[in-house]
TrEMBL record:
Residues 218-263 form the Rhodanese domain. The keyword Signal applies. It is found in: Cell envelope. Gene3D superfamilies: 3.40.50.2300. It comes from Cystobacter ferrugineus. Belongs to the bacterial solute-binding protein 2 family. This is ABC transporter substrate-binding protein.
Amino acid sequence: MRYFPPFGASALAALMLLTPGCKDNKETTPAGGGAPAKPAGAKIALLLPESKTSRYESHDRPHFERKVKELCAECEVIYSNADQDAAKQQNQAEAAITNGAQVLVLDPVDAASAAAIVGRARQSKATVISYDRLIAQADLDYYISFDNEKVGKLQGQALADKLKADGKADGTIVVINGSPTDSNAAMFKAGAHSVLDGSGLKIGAEYDTPDWSPDKAQQQMEQAITQLGKDKIVGVYCANDGTAGGAIAAMKAAGINPLPPVTGQDAELAGIQRIVAGEQYMTVYKAIKAEAEAAAELAVALARGGQPPAGKINAKVNNGQKDVPSVLLTPVAVTKDNIKSTIVADGFWTTAQICEGSFQAACAQAQLQ
């Protein structure tokens, strides 16, 4: 995989200039000449993969839809969630194309089988933006996501550093990866192993978690506890907050106290609350608002017949068939110490949301209130 310089605020601001607002349905000629733009009232499909991970319905969808409407009041967003069913997602994509979608913003359930959706879109001259997860072996137009190997490196480094500080740098850990059908999961895994494999820590058990299911992660952790012994596990690498929640539930049920450091990702509300309460060590915060808005800006520009100006795409990522023009944003490691300066400062979650109910005392101790 080949990366260009990191995507900063200036590049995002520049990308936001790609798309003029839609004022009427007349065709216009782009400033640089060429074919007339498509009518302002274009159709854009947003195809998300699942709802077990709370971010998609609580952040990705609303931010994307709001930004599209802000840029083009007459544009229509055709929204579907596949509920972790690749066949269902293919049907949803077909329906969107039949309904006239000029651009598909597609977060694939299965990175390999989604190539068929790209092929079908090509037949109808629709553009495909691979969103968050990279579609493999396909003639993609664009890819918008985060530096996903860096996500794994942040998780692995945070765990290794914490265990070294605790005097457990040569202890045994459990590794719970993401779904084997998710191309991002493979990148998280590669990034984590690039740190953990040379850290001195011993990986006592490792699992891939179908569908990113917290319930399956809980079962995997139960197996690891039985195999290794509950007193032998010094840390747990979990690829996201959902799997972290499952692993933590298994350890609490087994009577492990205190809990070892556990990693996560996505800054889910439940994950942030566990960090405040001391049950989860860290998560990786990805500015989903910036990701969703960048996707909306690009989608509207493409739906209206435009192209991103040269230099606004900040990376190229190879998906096995081509180097895909990409927008990559930067992830951030979050522990109890920087929740306020990251999650709260960005408005991702408010202190009122984090500190409700039983978390009030822990929030006060963490100086979040």
